[in-house]
Amino acid sequence: MNTPRTRGFSIAEMLIALTITATLLTATLTALDTSYRSYKVTTEGASTNVVSRLVMQRMMTMIRTGTDFGPYPDDVYDTATNPVTSTSIEFLTRDDGAGNRQVVQIERRDPSSTERGPYELWYIQTDFVNGVAQTPIERPMLTGIADLRFTLEYDVGPRLRRATVDMTVRANDYQDAAFHADLEAPTIRLVSTVNPRRLD
User: What tens-digit pLDDT sequence spans the chain (200 residues)?
Assistant: First the structure.
């Protein structure tokens, strides 16, 4: 009896099939990787936006209720020095008149050696007990600061009339990890102006 011969795949056909399969798998994994990184950029941007707004609101509340602000201009009447533009602000948050008071400073710090950012926003609280300064309490409020400026406009006294905070925040940058996609974390700029309360 003659059995019909069954013809199998040749090596060339197998190599072509493997090449097509590998190409399809690579394209699928690339699309999944890009989608995942895009999701990370979007969530990081949304998170940065929410946290930055909360920090800005907290700063505005502290400035609104503070007194005795600094840095002071050299001459209140000189438009070249008033308003003052600074990377920090200092003010009094509590004073009982008996030498017990609390001074808060909010400042931009550069944790790197390049002095070009990204910067950090720091909160420094110094308590005075009977006129003696205690150990300051320092903690970071926000990281990833691209730029931060305080513009302080003073009246005669010098008494702060208006404070403007201009803060630009960058989310974590996934650009270096992008795969066939230009993913860029969003930059958020927040500008807010506040008038301190009048105690007199």
Answer: 566 666 777 888 889 999 999 999 999 998 888 888 877 777 877 888 888 999 999 999 999 999 999 998 888 888 888 899 999 999 999 888 888 999 999 999 987 665 666 899 999 999 999 989 999 999 999 988 999 999 999 988 778 999 999 999 987 654 444 444 455 667 889 999 999 886 54
Asked if residue 97 is part of any domain, the answer here is no
Domain assignment present for 61: yes
DSSP-assigned letter for residue 10: -
DSSP type of residue 52 = H
pTM: 0.72
In a domain, 107, yes or no: no
Burial of 32 (0-12, 13-18, 19+ CB in 10 A): exposed
